[in-house]
Write a structure and sequence with these properties.
With 143 residues, the chain is α+β, with helices and mostly antiparallel strands. The protein has one domain (2-141): SMI1/KNR4-like, CATH 3.40.1580. Helix content is 38%, strand content 20%. The chain contains five helices and seven strands. It has helices at residues 2-11, 24-34, 40-48, 71-80, 128-141, and strands at 16-17, 52-54, 57-59, 91-95, 101-104, 109-113, 121-127. The strands form two sheets. The protein has a four-stranded antiparallel beta sheet. The protein has a three-stranded antiparallel beta sheet with strand order 1-2-3, covered by helices on one side. Helix 1 runs parallel beside helix 5. The radius of gyration is 14 Å and the shape is globular.
Length: 143
């Protein structure tokens, strides 16, 4: 998964991330607490970065200071109450505001969830790495 880390760093020159990203023990505790399994890319994201920020965008994460109190855990727990009828389990990667959430499943596939727009989950046809890089490029292309 070092290619994940290198690909992200190469694609995003002004990348900000946690000085104390999550450990494998913390990731295991998060999975247990949320009742989910994380894909390899999401685990690598948390182990290498904790969270990512660029421009005005902050992607949620987990760090060693906050652990289960991290934004990713708190917001995922909240959003899961809106997805009680959904068989799949997701982790919230981005809270885009106004009730628009970007989710990641246990295979690192990305989805959009807008509860106020009928509560449908729409697949984005990207994995986590592709989403992060595309999000950055979209931001910089619209600047």
């Amino acid at each position: 998964m070092n290619s994940f880390k290198n690909d992200i760093k190469a694609a995003i020159p002004d990348l900000e991330f946690s000085k104390v990203p999550a450990t494998i023990e913390t990731i295991s505790a998060v999975e247990k607490y949320l009742g989910i399994s994380m894909g390899c890319l999401l685990q690598s994201y948390l182990l290498n970065f904790g969270y990512i920020a660029f421009g005005h965008v902050e992607l949620l994460g987990v760090n060693e200071r906050q652990k289960l109190d991290s934004d990713m855990v708190r917001i995922t727990k909240l959003v899961s109450t809106l997805l009680v009828n959904e068989k799949r389990r997701f982790v919230v990667i981005e809270d885009q505001g106004d009730g628009d959430y970007i989710l990641c499943d246990d295979n690192d596939n990305m989805f959009e969830f807008i509860p106020t727009a009928g509560g449908k989950i729409r697949q984005l046809n990207q994995n986590l790495a592709d989403y992060i890089i595309a999000r950055y490029r979209n931001l910089t292309n619209n600047s």
